[in-house]
Amino acid sequence: MTVSVTEAKNKLTQLLAAVERGERVTIERHGRPIAEIVKPSGKRKPKFGTLKDVLKMTPEQFHELTRPMTDEEVDAFLEGRY
Question: Looking at residue 44, what DSSP letter applies?
Fold first, then answer.
């Protein structure tokens, strides 16, 4: 289903009901799509801190992961070897 911005503003409740039924709603401005409303997939990103007891990392390991790349590593990366 495709609607204009004005129509979306005026019919938001009906559009959300259509999305709940599984429809995809595209919103257009001047005939060009600018947004889509879709039903969430059910997959959610983990909340901050939820891996606290699962992922263990020492400060040294964290530092190694976040250190700047060396010149050699940058060259390897740019050449597709990294």
Answer: -
Cα separation, 7 vs 28, whole angstroms: 10
Range of the domain at 14: 2-37
The total domain count for the chain is 1
**Three-state SS at 28:** strand
DSSP code for 38:
-
Tens-place pLDDT, residues 2-19: 999 999 999 999 999 999
Give a yes or no: residue 59 inside a domain: no
Q: What is the pTM of this model?
A: 0.51
Q: Which helix (H) or strand (E) holds 72?
A: helix 71-78
